[in-house]
């Protein structure tokens, strides 16, 4: 195999002279390779040709990810992790393949595809196809020639994409192992990475459900076919739903948002407290998936939400404005808004059970209590919820708008423990607490998991 090094190449590959490249990951040797009019580079560390099967990263150029720090894709993270892996192995090769932007469609088309993803909700594969371009236009001939020139026809490939090792094997490079870098998804790229996993056969990291799983959970059907009261909240690992200035963009990632929209599509009504409307001006409609908008319910005893808020202005969904028995509202309202009076409470906060009863008089189906933290917490501690979806994102906010908070207890043995199921949504972990006996019954046909959890003795320290 060592002879390969000096064997003349029967290709149009033009190899440049080696130079030293000191980097954060060690001092590499850098060479240019020009093939079919495109100049690539190879970074080598140590003497990979002497290695039995050196580590090789075949990295496709990505200006946005590699240079500009984009979180839309994982290229920058993969590049860094590959250089770290090669550095810690002490020897290896990084082939930086230029002209492979957007899986070979070029930078301009890649940005056009981004725009389509933003405006039409297409995934990364659909967007390429909508532009009349292949989902993957790359070929690895140049890379195979570069590896041959470097004396490495037997390698271990750093990649989560089996198509890359297949392509190299066909081009005469023996890939004896493929190492998946197992990087955590970022909130902004988890949907993109899930698309690559489900549509392009990329490795599914341990514990990752694919897109179908995460949007086709049995529980959506359970919610749609029963009259439950459920709540959903996404909070940071340290229990906040927004920063202290109210910035909640974005605590959890795309898949958790999709999950929320799946729940909205399954319920008859979605309710938020007035504080959420004041802080976030939400639409409360179904956009991330197909489905009908639920009735919007705004719990607002003092009628303090702004009159120009989306829920009062946009007729995308019927809106029920739940206000106090004696609260005055001036002037005419848009046709989609119906005022419904809460029972008289003589200054006390309204009992969540009464709120549910009032909503049930007007709307069929399940009711989603979507926020904010205070409203969800009140409904939880009043025992008004059948089910709670609590997503935690791996972010620490430190101080801010609290998520779940209620009058706790002195003893851990009195803390709330319920049967639960867990879902991994990209980087986020969603825990579904099955709170009521009714919900446990509705979910009984689903998972062995649920039984398992019910049988577990709580550990009391
Ligand atoms: Zn990229």
UniProtKB/TrEMBL annotation:
Catalytic activity line of the entry: GTP + 4 H2O = 2,5-diamino-6-hydroxy-4-(5-phosphoribosylamino)-pyrimidine + formate + 2 phosphate + 3 H(+)
Bacterial bifunctional deaminase-reductase C-terminal domain segment(s): 229-401
Domain of life according to the entry: Bacteria
Binding annotation for Zn(2+): 62, 73, 75
Residues binding GTP, per UniProt: 57-61, 78, 101-103, 124, 159, 164
GO BP annotations, alphabetical order: riboflavin biosynthetic process
Transmembrane segments: none
Pfam families from the UniProt entry: GTP_cyclohydro2, RibD_C
Pathway given in the UniProt record: Cofactor biosynthesis; riboflavin biosynthesis; 5-amino-6-(D-ribitylamino)uracil from GTP: step 1/4
InterPro entries: DHFR-like_dom_sf (IPR024072), GTP_cyclohydro_II (IPR032677), RibA (IPR000926), RibA-like_sf (IPR036144), RibDG_C (IPR002734)
Enzyme class per UniProt: hydrolase
Name of this chain's protein: GTP cyclohydrolase-2
Species whose genome carries this gene: Enteractinococcus helveticum
């Amino acid at each position: 195999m060592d002879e390969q090094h000096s064997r003349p190449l029967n290709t149009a590959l033009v190899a440049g002279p080696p130079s030293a490249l000191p980097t954060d990951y060690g001092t590499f040797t850098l060479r240019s390779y020009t093939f079919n009019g495109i100049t690539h580079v190879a970074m080598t560390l140590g003497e990979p040709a002497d290695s039995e099967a050196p580590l090789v990263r075949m990295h496709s150029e990505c200006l946005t990810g590699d240079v500009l720090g984009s979180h839309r894709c994982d290229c920058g993270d993969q590049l860094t992790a590959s250089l770290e892996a090669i550095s810690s192995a002490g020897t290896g090769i990084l082939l930086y393949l230029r002209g492979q932007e957007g899986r070979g469609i070029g930078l301009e088309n890649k940005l056009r595809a981004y725009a389509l993803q933003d405006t039409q909700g297409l995934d990364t594969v659909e967007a390429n196809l909508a532009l009349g371009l292949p989902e993957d236009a790359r070929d690895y001939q140049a890379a195979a020639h570069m590896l041959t020139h470097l004396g490495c026809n037997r390698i271990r490939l750093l990649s989560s994409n089996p198509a890359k090792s297949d392509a190299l094997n066909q081009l005469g490079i023996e890939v004896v192992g493929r190492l998946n870098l197992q990087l955590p998804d970022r909130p902004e790229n988890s949907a993109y990475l899930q698309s690559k996993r489900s549509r392009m056969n990329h490795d599914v990291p341990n514990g990752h459900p694919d897109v179908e799983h995460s949007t086709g959970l049995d529980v959506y059907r359970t919610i749609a076919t029963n009259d439950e009261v459920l709540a959903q909240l996404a909070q940071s690992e340290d229990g906040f739903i927004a920063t202290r200035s109210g910035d909640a963009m974005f605590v959890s990632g795309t898949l958790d948002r999709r999950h929320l929209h799946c729940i909205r599509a399954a319920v008859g009504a979605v309710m938020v407290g007035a504080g959420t409307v004041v802080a976030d001006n939400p639409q409360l409609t179904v956009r991330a998936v197909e489905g009908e908008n639920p009735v919007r319910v705004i719990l607002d005893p003092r009628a303090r939400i702004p009159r120009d808020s989306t829920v009062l202005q946009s007729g995308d969904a019927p809106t029920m404005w739940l206000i106090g028995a004696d609260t005055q509202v001036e002037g005419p309202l848009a046709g989609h808004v119906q005022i419904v009076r809460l029972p008289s409470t003589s200054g006390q906060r309204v009992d969540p059970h009464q709120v549910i009863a009032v909503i049930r008089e007007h709307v069929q189906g399940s009711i989603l209590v979507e926020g904010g933290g205070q409203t969800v917490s009140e409904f939880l501690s009043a025992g008004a919820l059948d089910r709670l979806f609590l997503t935690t994102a791996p972010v620490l906010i430190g101080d801010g708008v609290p998520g779940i908070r209620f009058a706790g207890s002195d003893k851990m043995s009195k803390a709330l423990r319920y049967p639960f199921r867990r879902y991994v949504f990209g980087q986020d972990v969603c825990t579904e607490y099955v709170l009521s006996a009714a919900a446990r019954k509705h979910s009984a046909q689903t998972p062995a998991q649920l039984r398992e959890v019910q049988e577990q003795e709580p550990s009391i320290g």
